[in-house]
Amino acid sequence: MIRVSFIFARNLVTLCLVAATLAPAQPKLAVDKMNIDLGVIYNGAVKKARISVRNAGTDTLRILGVQTSCGCTAAKQPKSALRPGESDVVEVEFNSTGFRGKIHKTVTIQTNDPKSPAVNVAIIGDVVDELVPLQGASAVWLGSLQTGKEVEHRVGFKNVSGKTITLRGFKSTSPTITVQMDQKTVQPADSIFVIIKITPLKTDYTSEQITLETDSNKQTHVPMRVTFTGIKPS
Q1: Among the three residues 110, 128, 146, which one is the final residue of a domain in this structure?
Q2: pTM of the entire structure?
């Protein structure tokens, strides 16, 4: 009886080894994390992260593409092919400009892994401001503006940082949009106002970016988008 059991066990091991030998080689994608927490992000900052990808299979793993769920998130594609046991990195960048509150984005890695052809990695974080727009949003809609005529618009921000913040200047994506700062320093819990001056040049929908520069080491840039439609003078 003992000899029969021994022969049966030996034959079973032999069958398993043969089955393993005959099994087709397959690639398998393995990532080091399924969730990336960027933590607190100050509006206007760019946060970077890395996703390690490895071929845990027995055949060549081909990276067919890396896609993101939002244009605010960029991902650099790794090597197009990984040998068994080989690793590489997907570099990810999230641009927080214009966001506020909790964010949830996705990076999708597509491969020739027959069991998991698409793997989603979640990107989460919390976008905050030190200078919070009094209008409740970082975007300002000015409606219809006559071309060739300068228009002024007043925008306010509240300092919630708990420290004094000084505005150092501004940047604009258009030379036709400038910012006037009658006051540059704002105390904690106080508000500061700036004047946006715009001279539309074309009869079309326009979206431009203004960035206020501060002396804060946390939020050095305060982004604000200005949109309007240019119309012909009446």
Answers
A1: 128
A2: 0.82
Q: Is residue 135 part of a domain?
A: yes
The rounded Cα 232 to chain-centroid distance in angstroms is 38
Q: Are 41 and 97 in contact (CB under 8 A)?
A: no
Domain of 159?
131-231
Residue 178 lies in a domain: yes
Are 39 and 74 part of one and the same domain? yes
- Measured CA to CA in angstroms, residue 103 lies from 42, 121, 135 at distances of 12, 14, 21
Banded pLDDT at 234 (limits 50, 70, 90): confident
107, 67 contact by CB (below 8 A): yes
Contact 141, 181 (CB under 8 A): no
Same domain, 221 and 174: yes
User: What pLDDT digit, counting tens, does each position of 211-230 carry?
Assistant: 999 999 999 999 999 999 99
Alpha-carbon gap, residue 93 to 38, rounded angstroms: 10
